[in-house]
Amino acid sequence: MSENNSPAKRSVQTDLEIPQIDLNVLNDLEFETQYLVTSLDNMTENMYNLLHSISSIAADNVEIHKTTVNKLTDNMDANIKCIYTIMAKTEELSKSMKATDKIYQKIKATKRLVDMFDSYI
């Protein structure tokens, strides 16, 4: 073995290569880490609250939409029933008006006869 690679020399070299760690740096690092963890925790909690609020608003909107669609459907059904009722009444009125056509023809004939009598007098 050469002198440079002896175990005693390697041990000395390793001890010399490791610098001393300043305890203030470790304390600062721990403080900053705790600050970051606290900030991350706060951000996560805020995000949770925000997402919960958004989900609640979305659920409310879905419920409002459902109610609106149900009411619209009910109103459309009622309107369709009214239209069919109006159509039926119009048809009944139209049938009943056919009798007035016969009366009109009789009135027209009577008027013609009255006009004829007037012209002779």
List the helices and strands and how they pair.
Elements: H1 7-17, H2 23-120
Model description:
This protein is mainly alpha-helical. Helices cover 90% and strands 0% of the residues. It is built from two helices and no strands. The protein has helices at residues 7-17, 23-120. Residues 19-118 form the BLOC-1-related complex subunit 6 C-terminal helix domain. InterPro entries: BORCS6, BORCS6_C. This is BLOC-1-related complex subunit 6 C-terminal helix domain-containing protein.
How many helical elements? 2
Report the biggest beta sheet as strand number plus sense, adding barrel if it closes. none
Low-confidence stretches: none
What is the CA-CA span between the terminal residues? 164 Å
What is the share of helical residues? over 70%
Strand content of the residues, in percent?
under 5%
Please identify the structural class as seen in this structure: mainly alpha
In N-to-C order, the SSE pattern is: HH
Shape: rod-shaped
Query: For the residues shown, what is the average pLDDT?
Result: 87
The radius of gyration is: 51 Å
Q: Tell how many strands the DSSP assignment holds.
A: 0
